[in-house]
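Contributing new complexes? Match this layout with S-adenosyl-L-homocysteine.
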Amino acid sequence: MANKKIELKGLFPEELAQQVSNMGLEKYRTRQLIDWLYNKGVTDFESMTNLSKAVRVRLDAQFKLLKLNRIGQIESASKDTEKFLFELPDKRRVESVLMRDGKRRTLCVSSQVGCPLDCQFCATARMGLLRNLTAAEIVEQVLYAQRFLRARGDELTHVVMMGMGEPLLNFDQVIRAIRLINLDYGAAVGIRRITLSTVGHVPGIAKLAREKLKIGLAVSLNATTDVQRSQIMPINHKWPIAELLSAVRAYCDQIRRWATFEYVLLHGFNDMPEDARRLIDLVRDMPCKINVIPWNPIEDAPFQRPPQSAIDRFVNILTQAQLTATVRYSKGDDIAAGCGQLYQEMVSGQ
Ligand code: SAH
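Output block (do not edit by hand):
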């Protein structure tokens, strides 16, 4: 039956070797398959020309090879951001965003189709959760970008799990994908160059610490009191700020890396000097960076993007208190590829 076919792209090398051995094929076939899948990036067995026709037919009968159909691609006016719209095998759609910054080439990857979390300022939230992505679907976003860059003599250097969805709510597939992305034969992105951004799912952060992966952790804090945070992020009712911060502290102790706190700046809501001062008090004793993200407008949301003067005022207060703070001027906001704008055109299918 077609659906019983195993997807090869989500398998670890030893699992692939097991499949090859189950079929009674020679061991070196695993290497060949890996080369076709990851270096040459083929998406059908027919193209694997160093395998005999008979072997190709047998592989085809047992296995699937994921292909993401790129149905849209736009480049920002500044040419430093490219958004890919992919159609998955079930016709659902996700986006990835490729950003160039100096020597960095960063891919922002989606982990779910939509998102269940309902953050009030985010466009993806409006889709609700349609489904989780498989590890293969996450990995293939990265491999696609890698092939895209290599064709231009360039290389992917960083991956951020900051696209559509909440990665910690798709834990197993996301962790599998991270390990695959990191493997030498895959996209070979260094583990310290992979960052996962979470809404602040406390049990997920604790579970992530137990994986002992040295990935970066980014946490969307976005507010400094529980009343304020609950207003824009319903998840805060479940895991309020104090609990969240102690989970992040534990993660940093375990992994020995600084955390990043993302802080979406909403004018007149959380961009006042007293907000900055409360933020300093909250994170003062933690090894961390603050990533200030001026809100990218989405339709019909009751927020305003702060003017430059409010952004500067906020960041200056942080840096004067010796915090490391940077402003993420969202790349690609003219193509709706800025943070939280990865929403669909898609739903309506345009
Ligand atoms: N679910 C994860 C990852 C996806 S959101 C998380 O919550 O972290 C990635 C980042 O974009 C988060 O920091 C989020 O707070 C921010 N964000 C969402 N909508 C935004 C918007 N409209 N403008 C700017 N940043 C936004």
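Reviewers usually confirm one structural detail per submission. For this one: The chain has two domains: 6-64, 69-335.
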